[in-house]
Design the sequence.
Protein backbone atom coordinates (compact mmCIF):
# COMPACT_ATOMS: atom_id res chain seq x y z
CA UNK A 1 0.00 0.00 0.00
CA UNK A 2 2.79 2.34 0.90
CA UNK A 3 4.34 1.53 -2.46
CA UNK A 4 1.09 2.34 -4.27
CA UNK A 5 0.65 5.58 -2.30
CA UNK A 6 4.17 6.64 -3.10
CA UNK A 7 3.57 5.97 -6.82
CA UNK A 8 0.39 8.07 -6.78
CA UNK A 9 2.25 10.92 -5.06
CA UNK A 10 4.99 10.86 -7.70
CA UNK A 11 2.40 10.84 -10.50
CA UNK A 12 0.59 13.84 -9.00
CA UNK A 13 3.85 15.77 -8.75
CA UNK A 14 4.76 15.01 -12.34
CA UNK A 15 1.30 16.06 -13.53
CA UNK A 16 1.50 19.27 -11.54
CA UNK A 17 4.87 20.07 -13.03
CA UNK A 18 3.59 19.48 -16.55
CA UNK A 19 0.50 21.60 -15.85
CA UNK A 20 2.61 24.51 -14.64
CA UNK A 21 4.90 24.18 -17.62
CA UNK A 22 2.09 24.42 -20.16
CA UNK A 23 -0.26 26.85 -18.45
CA UNK A 24 2.13 29.02 -16.44
CA UNK A 25 4.78 30.18 -18.91
CA UNK A 26 8.16 31.26 -17.63
CA UNK A 27 8.80 34.99 -17.20
CA UNK A 28 10.85 34.95 -20.41
CA UNK A 29 8.08 33.31 -22.44
CA UNK A 30 5.49 35.55 -20.87
CA UNK A 31 7.54 38.61 -21.77
CA UNK A 32 7.75 37.45 -25.39
CA UNK A 33 4.01 36.85 -25.51
CA UNK A 34 3.20 40.24 -24.03
CA UNK A 35 5.73 42.16 -26.13
CA UNK A 36 4.02 44.18 -28.85
CA UNK A 37 5.61 44.37 -32.28
CA UNK A 38 7.51 47.59 -32.81
CA UNK A 39 5.80 50.12 -35.03
CA UNK A 40 7.64 50.96 -38.21
CA UNK A 41 9.29 54.32 -37.62
CA UNK A 42 8.35 56.81 -40.31
CA UNK A 43 11.32 58.53 -41.89
CA UNK A 44 11.53 62.18 -40.96
CA UNK A 45 13.13 64.59 -43.42
CA UNK A 46 15.43 67.35 -42.20
CA UNK A 47 13.28 69.91 -44.00
CA UNK A 48 10.09 70.01 -46.03
CA UNK A 49 8.00 72.16 -48.31
CA UNK A 50 5.28 73.64 -46.09
CA UNK A 51 2.38 74.69 -48.31
CA UNK A 52 0.74 76.39 -45.32
CA UNK A 53 3.43 79.06 -45.55
CA UNK A 54 2.92 79.69 -49.27
CA UNK A 55 2.26 83.31 -50.15
CA UNK A 56 -0.81 84.67 -51.87
CA UNK A 57 0.20 83.90 -55.46
CA UNK A 58 -2.87 85.41 -57.15
CA UNK A 59 -0.79 88.29 -58.52
CA UNK A 60 1.89 86.06 -60.06
CA UNK A 61 2.36 86.79 -63.77
CA UNK A 62 5.38 85.14 -65.44
CA UNK A 63 5.14 87.57 -68.35
CA UNK A 64 5.58 90.48 -65.92
CA UNK A 65 7.77 89.06 -63.15
CA UNK A 66 8.73 91.15 -60.16
CA UNK A 67 12.52 90.76 -60.16
CA UNK A 68 14.36 92.41 -57.26
CA UNK A 69 17.83 93.88 -57.60
CA UNK A 70 20.56 94.99 -55.25
CA UNK A 71 21.83 92.76 -52.44
CA UNK A 72 19.96 89.61 -53.43
CA UNK A 73 20.45 85.85 -53.68
CA UNK A 74 21.14 85.58 -57.39
CA UNK A 75 20.28 82.40 -59.29
CA UNK A 76 21.10 82.03 -62.99
CA UNK A 77 18.66 79.86 -64.92
CA UNK A 78 21.01 78.34 -67.49
CA UNK A 79 18.72 77.08 -70.24
CA UNK A 80 18.06 77.63 -73.96
CA UNK A 81 16.01 80.82 -74.36
CA UNK A 82 16.51 81.00 -78.11
CA UNK A 83 16.56 78.49 -80.93
CA UNK A 84 14.40 75.38 -81.40
CA UNK A 85 14.49 74.43 -77.70
CA UNK A 86 13.57 77.89 -76.38
CA UNK A 87 10.29 76.70 -74.86
CA UNK A 88 12.28 74.59 -72.38
CA UNK A 89 13.96 77.72 -71.11
CA UNK A 90 10.72 79.64 -70.78
CA UNK A 91 9.09 76.81 -68.85
CA UNK A 92 12.03 76.61 -66.45
CA UNK A 93 11.94 80.40 -66.05
CA UNK A 94 8.25 80.08 -65.11
CA UNK A 95 9.04 77.53 -62.40
CA UNK A 96 11.97 79.53 -61.05
CA UNK A 97 9.97 82.77 -60.96
CA UNK A 98 7.12 81.02 -59.16
CA UNK A 99 9.44 79.89 -56.37
CA UNK A 100 11.15 83.29 -56.17
CA UNK A 101 7.81 85.14 -56.10
CA UNK A 102 6.56 82.93 -53.28
CA UNK A 103 9.71 83.30 -51.18
CA UNK A 104 10.03 87.03 -51.85
CA UNK A 105 6.45 87.74 -50.79
CA UNK A 106 7.26 86.00 -47.52
CA UNK A 107 10.02 88.56 -47.07
CA UNK A 108 12.91 86.50 -48.39
CA UNK A 109 15.23 84.35 -46.30
CA UNK A 110 17.83 85.19 -43.66
CA UNK A 111 21.35 84.81 -45.05
CA UNK A 112 24.68 86.51 -44.46
CA UNK A 113 23.26 88.44 -41.52
CA UNK A 114 20.19 89.91 -43.21
CA UNK A 115 16.94 89.10 -45.00
CA UNK A 116 17.51 88.78 -48.75
CA UNK A 117 15.20 88.32 -51.72
CA UNK A 118 15.66 85.85 -54.58
CA UNK A 119 16.69 87.24 -57.98
CA UNK A 120 16.25 85.01 -61.04
CA UNK A 121 18.45 85.82 -64.06
CA UNK A 122 18.08 84.32 -67.55
CA UNK A 123 21.22 82.75 -68.98
CA UNK A 124 20.72 81.61 -72.57
CA UNK A 125 23.09 78.81 -73.59
CA UNK A 126 21.35 78.42 -76.99
CA UNK A 127 21.90 74.62 -76.71
CA UNK A 128 25.56 75.20 -77.64
CA UNK A 129 28.45 74.12 -75.36
CA UNK A 130 30.69 77.04 -76.34
CA UNK A 131 27.92 79.54 -75.65
CA UNK A 132 27.18 77.75 -72.35
CA UNK A 133 30.75 78.36 -71.21
CA UNK A 134 30.55 82.05 -72.14
CA UNK A 135 27.20 82.65 -70.47
CA UNK A 136 28.14 80.79 -67.28
CA UNK A 137 31.35 82.80 -66.92
CA UNK A 138 29.44 86.00 -67.53
CA UNK A 139 26.87 85.04 -64.88
CA UNK A 140 29.60 84.35 -62.33
CA UNK A 141 32.06 87.14 -63.09
CA UNK A 142 29.69 89.96 -64.06
CA UNK A 143 26.30 89.15 -62.57
CA UNK A 144 27.92 87.68 -59.43
CA UNK A 145 25.41 84.84 -59.22
CA UNK A 146 25.50 82.48 -56.26
CA UNK A 147 24.00 79.48 -58.08
CA UNK A 148 23.91 78.10 -61.63
CA UNK A 149 20.57 76.30 -62.13
CA UNK A 150 20.14 74.02 -65.17
CA UNK A 151 19.85 72.26 -67.58
CA UNK A 152 18.52 70.06 -70.35
CA UNK A 153 21.41 68.27 -72.05
CA UNK A 154 24.17 66.42 -70.25
CA UNK A 155 26.75 67.89 -72.63
CA UNK A 156 25.77 71.39 -71.48
CA UNK A 157 25.69 70.27 -67.85
CA UNK A 158 29.32 69.14 -68.12
CA UNK A 159 30.25 72.67 -69.18
CA UNK A 160 28.30 74.11 -66.25
CA UNK A 161 30.05 71.71 -63.87
CA UNK A 162 33.50 72.62 -65.11
CA UNK A 163 32.76 76.34 -64.85
CA UNK A 164 31.23 76.06 -61.39
CA UNK A 165 34.21 74.08 -60.16
CA UNK A 166 36.66 76.58 -61.61
CA UNK A 167 35.03 79.55 -59.88
CA UNK A 168 33.75 77.67 -56.79
CA UNK A 169 30.06 78.40 -57.33
CA UNK A 170 27.15 76.08 -56.51
CA UNK A 171 25.81 74.28 -59.59
CA UNK A 172 22.31 72.77 -59.29
CA UNK A 173 21.55 70.02 -61.82
CA UNK A 174 17.77 69.59 -61.96
CA UNK A 175 17.33 68.13 -65.45
CA UNK A 176 20.44 66.43 -66.94
CA UNK A 177 20.18 62.68 -66.40
CA UNK A 178 23.31 60.89 -67.60
CA UNK A 179 24.82 58.53 -65.01
CA UNK A 180 28.40 59.56 -65.73
CA UNK A 181 27.90 63.20 -64.76
CA UNK A 182 28.88 62.38 -61.19
CA UNK A 183 31.50 59.70 -61.89
CA UNK A 184 35.16 59.74 -60.83
CA UNK A 185 36.09 61.85 -63.86
CA UNK A 186 33.30 64.45 -63.79
CA UNK A 187 32.40 64.85 -60.10
CA UNK A 188 33.06 68.08 -58.25
CA UNK A 189 31.92 69.22 -54.82
CA UNK A 190 30.04 72.25 -56.12
CA UNK A 191 27.52 70.29 -58.22
CA UNK A 192 24.40 68.65 -56.80
CA UNK A 193 22.22 66.36 -58.93
CA UNK A 194 18.65 66.44 -57.61
CA UNK A 195 17.00 64.70 -60.57
CA UNK A 196 16.74 60.96 -61.24
CA UNK A 197 19.37 59.38 -63.51
CA UNK A 198 19.16 57.03 -66.49
CA UNK A 199 20.01 54.02 -64.34
CA UNK A 200 17.14 54.62 -61.91
CA UNK A 201 14.68 55.25 -64.73
CA UNK A 202 15.47 52.09 -66.70
CA UNK A 203 15.73 49.86 -63.65
CA UNK A 204 12.53 51.34 -62.23
CA UNK A 205 10.54 50.52 -65.35
CA UNK A 206 12.02 47.00 -65.42
CA UNK A 207 11.08 46.56 -61.74
CA UNK A 208 7.51 47.59 -62.53
CA UNK A 209 7.17 45.10 -65.38
CA UNK A 210 8.81 42.23 -63.49
CA UNK A 211 7.73 42.71 -59.88
CA UNK A 212 4.41 44.57 -60.08
CA UNK A 213 2.76 44.24 -63.49
CA UNK A 214 3.96 40.68 -64.26
CA UNK A 215 2.30 40.56 -67.65
CA UNK A 216 4.51 41.25 -70.66
CA UNK A 217 7.68 39.17 -71.13
CA UNK A 218 8.92 40.25 -74.57
CA UNK A 219 10.38 43.72 -74.93
CA UNK A 220 11.65 45.84 -77.79
CA UNK A 221 14.12 48.63 -77.00
CA UNK A 222 14.11 51.69 -79.27
CA UNK A 223 16.17 54.74 -78.31
CA UNK A 224 17.93 57.71 -79.87
CA UNK A 225 21.43 56.98 -81.15
CA UNK A 226 23.65 59.04 -78.86
CA UNK A 227 25.07 58.65 -75.36
CA UNK A 228 21.82 59.43 -73.55
CA UNK A 229 19.79 56.94 -75.60
CA UNK A 230 22.32 54.17 -75.03
CA UNK A 231 22.43 54.97 -71.30
CA UNK A 232 18.64 54.79 -71.08
CA UNK A 233 18.66 51.41 -72.79
CA UNK A 234 21.46 50.18 -70.56
CA UNK A 235 19.53 50.99 -67.40
CA UNK A 236 16.51 49.03 -68.62
CA UNK A 237 18.57 45.99 -69.62
CA UNK A 238 20.30 46.00 -66.24
CA UNK A 239 16.91 46.22 -64.55
CA UNK A 240 15.61 43.22 -66.47
CA UNK A 241 18.58 41.17 -65.31
CA UNK A 242 17.91 42.16 -61.70
CA UNK A 243 14.14 42.05 -61.50
CA UNK A 244 12.78 40.17 -64.52
CA UNK A 245 15.36 37.59 -65.66
CA UNK A 246 12.73 35.49 -67.43
CA UNK A 247 11.93 38.40 -69.76
CA UNK A 248 13.38 38.63 -73.29
CA UNK A 249 14.68 41.55 -75.30
CA UNK A 250 13.39 40.58 -78.74
CA UNK A 251 14.82 43.61 -80.50
CA UNK A 252 17.07 46.59 -79.87
CA UNK A 253 17.56 49.57 -82.17
CA UNK A 254 18.91 53.11 -82.09
CA UNK A 255 17.84 55.85 -84.49
CA UNK A 256 19.19 59.26 -85.41
CA UNK A 257 17.81 62.34 -83.68
CA UNK A 258 14.79 64.16 -85.11
CA UNK A 259 13.71 61.23 -87.25
CA UNK A 260 10.52 61.80 -89.22
CA UNK A 261 9.85 58.30 -90.54
CA UNK A 262 9.74 55.44 -88.02
CA UNK A 263 8.15 52.94 -90.42
CA UNK A 264 11.23 50.66 -90.72
CA UNK A 265 11.49 50.36 -86.94
CA UNK A 266 7.76 49.82 -86.52
CA UNK A 267 7.86 46.93 -88.99
CA UNK A 268 10.65 45.35 -86.96
CA UNK A 269 8.65 45.78 -83.77
CA UNK A 270 5.67 44.05 -85.38
CA UNK A 271 7.79 41.18 -86.67
CA UNK A 272 9.56 40.67 -83.33
CA UNK A 273 6.48 39.61 -81.42
CA UNK A 274 7.21 42.26 -78.78
CA UNK A 275 4.58 42.73 -76.10
CA UNK A 276 5.87 46.14 -74.95
CA UNK A 277 8.31 48.82 -76.15
CA UNK A 278 10.79 50.62 -73.93
CA UNK A 279 12.03 53.95 -75.30
CA UNK A 280 14.22 56.71 -73.92
CA UNK A 281 13.02 59.16 -76.59
CA UNK A 282 12.07 62.74 -75.94
CA UNK A 283 9.93 65.09 -78.02
CA UNK A 284 9.68 65.45 -81.01
CA UNK A 285 11.00 61.91 -81.55
CA UNK A 286 8.72 60.52 -78.85
CA UNK A 287 5.53 62.06 -80.24
CA UNK A 288 6.37 61.08 -83.83
CA UNK A 289 7.12 57.52 -82.75
CA UNK A 290 3.87 57.15 -80.82
CA UNK A 291 1.66 58.72 -83.48
CA UNK A 292 3.13 56.57 -86.23
CA UNK A 293 2.96 53.44 -84.07
CA UNK A 294 -0.74 53.92 -83.38
CA UNK A 295 -1.39 54.69 -87.07
CA UNK A 296 0.39 51.44 -87.92
CA UNK A 297 -1.96 49.53 -85.62
CA UNK A 298 0.63 48.90 -82.88
CA UNK A 299 -1.35 49.11 -79.65
CA UNK A 300 1.08 47.43 -77.24
CA UNK A 301 2.31 49.49 -74.24
CA UNK A 302 5.15 51.98 -74.68
CA UNK A 303 7.10 52.82 -71.51
CA UNK A 304 8.97 56.09 -71.02
CA UNK A 305 9.72 58.89 -68.52
CA UNK A 306 8.03 61.85 -70.27
CA UNK A 307 4.75 60.48 -71.55
CA UNK A 308 2.99 63.26 -69.61
CA UNK A 309 2.96 65.96 -72.30
CA UNK A 310 -0.78 66.70 -72.63
CA UNK A 311 -0.41 68.31 -76.06
CA UNK A 312 1.17 65.14 -77.43
CA UNK A 313 -1.38 62.93 -75.68
CA UNK A 314 -4.31 64.98 -77.00
CA UNK A 315 -3.06 64.34 -80.54
CA UNK A 316 -3.13 60.62 -79.79
CA UNK A 317 -6.63 60.87 -78.28
CA UNK A 318 -8.07 58.83 -75.44
CA UNK A 319 -7.67 55.45 -77.16
CA UNK A 320 -4.27 56.22 -78.65
CA UNK A 321 -2.81 57.27 -75.30
CA UNK A 322 -4.46 54.50 -73.28
CA UNK A 323 -2.04 51.93 -71.89
CA UNK A 324 1.07 54.11 -72.11
CA UNK A 325 3.35 53.62 -69.11
CA UNK A 326 5.04 56.57 -67.44
CA UNK A 327 7.63 56.74 -64.66
CA UNK A 328 7.55 59.95 -62.63
CA UNK A 329 9.52 61.67 -59.89
CA UNK A 330 6.66 64.04 -59.00
CA UNK A 331 3.36 62.21 -58.49
CA UNK A 332 3.73 59.77 -55.65
CA UNK A 333 0.94 57.70 -54.04
CA UNK A 334 -2.82 57.26 -54.36
CA UNK A 335 -4.78 59.44 -54.31
CA UNK A 336 -2.59 62.31 -55.39
CA UNK A 337 -4.34 64.94 -53.23
CA UNK A 338 -4.28 64.08 -49.54
CA UNK A 339 -4.19 67.46 -47.79
CA UNK A 340 -5.95 70.82 -48.14
CA UNK A 341 -2.55 72.39 -48.79
CA UNK A 342 -1.89 70.12 -51.79
CA UNK A 343 -5.30 71.01 -53.21
CA UNK A 344 -4.72 74.72 -52.63
CA UNK A 345 -1.33 74.69 -54.35
CA UNK A 346 -2.78 72.86 -57.35
CA UNK A 347 -5.85 75.08 -57.68
CA UNK A 348 -3.93 78.34 -57.40
CA UNK A 349 -1.62 77.26 -60.23
CA UNK A 350 -4.35 75.87 -62.52
CA UNK A 351 -6.61 78.90 -62.01
CA UNK A 352 -3.79 81.26 -62.96
CA UNK A 353 -2.96 79.14 -66.00
CA UNK A 354 -6.57 79.17 -67.18
CA UNK A 355 -7.43 82.78 -66.48
CA UNK A 356 -4.28 84.92 -66.45
CA UNK A 357 -1.20 83.55 -68.12
CA UNK A 358 -0.57 84.30 -71.78
CA UNK A 359 1.92 82.99 -74.36
CA UNK A 360 4.21 81.16 -73.90
CA UNK A 361 2.97 80.30 -70.41
CA UNK A 362 -0.53 79.23 -71.43
CA UNK A 363 1.03 76.15 -73.02
CA UNK A 364 -0.77 72.94 -71.98
CA UNK A 365 2.54 71.49 -70.92
CA UNK A 366 2.42 73.69 -67.79
CA UNK A 367 -1.31 73.46 -67.11
CA UNK A 368 -0.71 71.48 -63.91
CA UNK A 369 2.02 71.99 -61.27
CA UNK A 370 2.63 68.25 -61.32
CA UNK A 371 4.57 65.81 -63.49
CA UNK A 372 7.84 67.34 -64.63
CA UNK A 373 6.65 70.78 -63.47
CA UNK A 374 6.03 69.53 -59.96
CA UNK A 375 9.47 67.95 -59.82
CA UNK A 376 11.25 71.08 -61.03
CA UNK A 377 9.39 73.25 -58.51
CA UNK A 378 10.23 71.02 -55.56
CA UNK A 379 13.88 70.72 -56.56
CA UNK A 380 14.22 74.49 -56.52
CA UNK A 381 12.33 74.83 -53.24
CA UNK A 382 14.86 72.34 -51.84
CA UNK A 383 17.76 74.56 -52.96
CA UNK A 384 16.21 77.61 -51.28
CA UNK A 385 15.61 75.60 -48.11
CA UNK A 386 19.27 74.52 -48.04
CA UNK A 387 20.49 78.12 -48.45
CA UNK A 388 18.11 79.26 -45.72
CA UNK A 389 19.35 76.61 -43.27
CA UNK A 390 22.97 77.32 -44.20
CA UNK A 391 22.17 80.96 -43.38
CA UNK A 392 24.68 81.91 -46.03
CA UNK A 393 25.46 82.15 -49.72
CA UNK A 394 28.95 80.83 -48.98
CA UNK A 395 29.34 77.68 -51.15
CA UNK A 396 31.17 75.81 -48.39
CA UNK A 397 28.35 76.37 -45.93
CA UNK A 398 25.76 75.33 -48.52
CA UNK A 399 27.73 72.16 -49.28
CA UNK A 400 27.96 71.31 -45.58
CA UNK A 401 24.15 71.36 -45.27
CA UNK A 402 23.20 69.79 -48.60
CA UNK A 403 25.58 66.81 -48.56
CA UNK A 404 23.66 65.07 -45.78
CA UNK A 405 20.26 66.62 -46.33
CA UNK A 406 16.77 65.26 -46.92
CA UNK A 407 13.68 67.15 -48.06
CA UNK A 408 9.99 66.25 -48.06
CA UNK A 409 8.15 67.48 -51.17
CA UNK A 410 4.56 68.62 -51.57
CA UNK A 411 3.53 65.11 -52.68
CA UNK A 412 4.87 63.63 -49.44
CA UNK A 413 7.91 61.80 -50.79
CA UNK A 414 11.40 62.37 -49.45
CA UNK A 415 14.45 63.39 -51.46
CA UNK A 416 17.75 62.27 -49.88
CA UNK A 417 21.15 63.52 -50.91
CA UNK A 418 23.86 60.85 -51.20
CA UNK A 419 26.89 62.47 -49.54
CA UNK A 420 29.71 60.88 -51.52
CA UNK A 421 28.66 61.77 -55.08
CA UNK A 422 25.87 64.35 -54.58
CA UNK A 423 23.17 62.27 -56.30
CA UNK A 424 19.57 62.25 -55.10
CA UNK A 425 18.03 59.05 -53.74
CA UNK A 426 14.26 58.87 -54.06
CA UNK A 427 11.25 56.63 -54.58
CA UNK A 428 9.74 56.81 -58.05
CA UNK A 429 6.21 56.01 -59.19
CA UNK A 430 4.85 54.36 -62.33
CA UNK A 431 1.37 54.53 -63.78
CA UNK A 432 -0.48 53.07 -66.72
CA UNK A 433 -2.46 55.79 -68.47
CA UNK A 434 -6.23 55.34 -68.32
CA UNK A 435 -9.26 57.15 -69.85
CA UNK A 436 -10.71 60.21 -68.07
CA UNK A 437 -13.45 58.27 -66.30
CA UNK A 438 -10.81 56.11 -64.59
CA UNK A 439 -8.40 58.88 -63.55
CA UNK A 440 -10.22 59.55 -60.27
CA UNK A 441 -8.01 56.98 -58.54
CA UNK A 442 -5.21 59.56 -58.69
CA UNK A 443 -6.99 62.86 -59.45
CA UNK A 444 -9.40 62.74 -56.53
CA UNK A 445 -10.76 66.31 -56.70
CA UNK A 446 -13.29 67.79 -59.15
CA UNK A 447 -13.48 67.28 -62.09
CA UNK A 448 -11.91 63.90 -61.12
CA UNK A 449 -9.69 63.65 -64.18
CA UNK A 450 -6.38 65.19 -65.19
CA UNK A 451 -7.47 65.73 -68.81
CA UNK A 452 -10.70 64.89 -70.62
CA UNK A 453 -9.29 64.53 -74.13
CA UNK A 454 -6.61 61.91 -73.48
CA UNK A 455 -5.71 59.05 -71.19
CA UNK A 456 -3.49 60.00 -68.29
CA UNK A 457 -2.22 58.97 -64.86
CA UNK A 458 -4.20 56.18 -63.22
CA UNK A 459 -3.12 54.09 -60.24
CA UNK A 460 0.35 55.04 -58.98
CA UNK A 461 2.73 52.18 -58.18
CA UNK A 462 5.62 53.16 -55.92
CA UNK A 463 9.10 51.86 -56.78
CA UNK A 464 11.09 51.93 -53.50
CA UNK A 465 14.34 53.86 -53.60
CA UNK A 466 16.20 50.83 -52.26
CA UNK A 467 15.40 48.95 -55.48
CA UNK A 468 16.62 51.68 -57.82
CA UNK A 469 19.50 53.41 -56.09
CA UNK A 470 21.26 55.69 -58.58
CA UNK A 471 24.47 54.38 -60.10
CA UNK A 472 27.54 55.14 -58.00
CA UNK A 473 31.09 55.10 -59.34
CA UNK A 474 33.18 53.21 -56.81
CA UNK A 475 36.30 54.61 -58.48
CA UNK A 476 35.38 57.98 -57.02
CA UNK A 477 37.55 58.23 -53.90
CA UNK A 478 34.70 59.66 -51.85
CA UNK A 479 32.55 56.62 -52.61
CA UNK A 480 35.08 53.83 -52.07
CA UNK A 481 33.83 51.27 -49.56
CA UNK A 482 30.37 52.90 -49.41
CA UNK A 483 27.07 51.13 -49.97
CA UNK A 484 24.42 52.36 -52.40
CA UNK A 485 23.18 54.86 -49.84
CA UNK A 486 26.65 56.35 -49.55
CA UNK A 487 27.23 55.01 -46.04
Sequence:
Amino acid sequence: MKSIGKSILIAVCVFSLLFLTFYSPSPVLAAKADKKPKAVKEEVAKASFDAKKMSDMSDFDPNNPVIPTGDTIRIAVVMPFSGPAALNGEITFLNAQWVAHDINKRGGIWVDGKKKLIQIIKADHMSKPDQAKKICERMILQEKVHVLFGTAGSNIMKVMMETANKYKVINHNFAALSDDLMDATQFNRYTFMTTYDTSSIGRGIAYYFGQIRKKETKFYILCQDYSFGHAMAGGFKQGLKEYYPEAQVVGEDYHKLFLTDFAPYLEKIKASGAEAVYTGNWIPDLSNLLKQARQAGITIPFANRIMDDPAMLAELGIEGSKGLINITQAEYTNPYFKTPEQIKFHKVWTDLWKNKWTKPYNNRLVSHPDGQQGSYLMQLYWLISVIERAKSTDPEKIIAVWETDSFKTLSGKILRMRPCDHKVIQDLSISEFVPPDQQKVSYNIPPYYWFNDCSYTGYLNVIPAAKILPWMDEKLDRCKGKDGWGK
